[in-house]
Amino acid sequence: MQFRLLSCLLFTAVLAGCFAEAESTAKATPAAQPVDVAAVLYAQYSPEYTFTTRLESPQQVELRPRVSGVIESVEFREGSHVKQGDLLFRIDPRPFAAEVARLEAELNRAQAALHQANSEAQRAKRLQGRNAISAEQAESRLSLASQRRAELASVQAALQAARLNLEFTEVRAPIDGQVSNAFITEGNNVQAGQSVLTSLVATDRLYAYFDVDERTWNASFSNVTDNGETQATLALAGSNGEQHTGALDFIDNQINEQTGTLRVRAVFTAKDAQLRPGAFARISLKAADSRPTVMVPDRAVGTDLKNRFVLVVNAENVLEYRQVELGRREGTLRVVEAGLEPGERIAANGPARVGPGMPVTPQNVEIETQNLTLAKPQSAAEPSA
């Protein structure tokens, strides 16, 4: 009886030990968590560079009067677009018209005086041929005719200048463009060549000058020319992503030794009122050549105290910590310069709910290519380019 009781107790202890070991094993091996897993994207990628600038007009004019006088009228709507030759200001023309009239009368007098002097000179030549007049008198009349011709030429030149001044009382637009407000209004006196009446800027095209550092230019744009075939995109500050397309049309002939940069210009057609001279803008240029590049979703990248990392899913479906070197961001994707190889799988949503060493149940998803061209991974037997 005692032996039977002892056997029951021993069996109970062994059974309890088995249950404890099983429970300990269950606690030591956590359940695999379902995780979105994706193969890294390997695609042809052209790095895009962004530069800041301010737009400039190819032509801008500070409109100044060519004659002094009083502004009689302002003939334009402020802020409007005008054509070359449109009347903008009118200066009181009466003093200039009076001067033209005076010089026209003076011209008539000079013409009459020259006509008389020419008649007397011809008569002197005939009389001198019959020895009816002295050589001195004949020479005097010929000299007087020459003086009258010079006086007539002087009056003609003065009249031409007076007519120009009368014409300049109408201040017209020298170029097509958009005019500012009238800085000087009716009734105010203006000085020739000094008073600024308004400003005028050409808006059919706009320039964007920016500087590219020497290293970036040599690495990504060395084959670029200014023939207008290299596309540039422009985004204005606060434009909510709206872009305008232009092209490079100027590359400077030397690198600035002080800054180590090259001055470049992109030209944009101002088809709407959003593009204005002086506006702050960001210019984006894509590198001339593309290269195969590993890319991952930006959300898949985690950050610890010093490094950027992703969680790689190994062959046993366990997460591994992998430090990476990141490049530029392209939409929702991030370029990986080092740390990942084509074909490797990662936790697509990053380390938000998982960590290194955890077993996972992969739920395969695909990374959006964002119109990138996929590249073929190079095998070990293929020579490198």
Structure report:
The chain is an alpha+beta fold. The chain has 4 domains: 33-45 and 291-374, conserved putative lor/sdh protein from methanococcus maripaludis s2 fold; 49-58 and 204-286, Elongation Factor Tu (Ef-tu), domain 3 (Beta Barrel), CATH 2.40.30.170; 61-90 and 171-201, OB fold (Dihydrolipoamide Acetyltransferase, E2P) (Beta Barrel), CATH 2.40.50; 94-168, Helix Hairpins (Orthogonal Bundle), CATH 1.10.287. The protein is 27% helix and 35% strand. The chain has helices at 2-28, 94-129, 135-168, 214-220, and strands at residues 33-39, 41-45, 48-56, 60-63, 69-74, 81-82, 87-91, 170-172, 177-179, 189-190, 198-201, 205-213, 231-236, 243-251, 261-269, 280-286, 291-297, 302-303, 308-313, 319-330, 333-338, 345-347, 360-364, 373-374. The strands form 4 sheets. Strands 1, 2, 17, 18, 19, 20, 21, 22, 23 and 24 form a 10-stranded mixed beta sheet that branches. A 6-stranded antiparallel beta barrel has the order 3-12-15-14-13-16. Strand 18 (302-303) and strand 19 form a beta hairpin. Helix 2 (94-129) runs antiparallel to helix 3 (135-168). The longest helix has 36 residues, at 94-129. The radius of gyration is 44 Å and the shape is elongated. 20% of the residues are buried.
Let me know the largest β-sheet.
10 strands, mixed
Write down the oligomeric state.
single chain
Radius of gyration over all CA atoms, rounded: 44 Å
Order of helices and strands: HEEEEEEEHHEEEEEHEEEEEEEEEEEE
The CATH topology label of the largest domain is conserved putative lor/sdh protein from methanococcus maripaludis s2 fold
Class from secondary-structure proportions: alpha+beta
Query: For this structure, what is the CATH class of the largest domain?
Result: Mainly Beta
Classify the beta-strand content into a percent band. 25-35%
Question: For the residues shown, what is the average pLDDT?
Answer: 83
Q: Percentage of helical residues?
A: 25-40%
Number of helices: 4
Name the overall outline: elongated
Query: Distance between termini?
Result: 87 Å
Reported CATH architecture of the largest domain: Beta Barrel
Subcellular location: Cell inner membrane
Organism: Oceanimonas doudoroffii
GO molecular function: transmembrane transporter activity
Keywords: Coiled coil, Signal
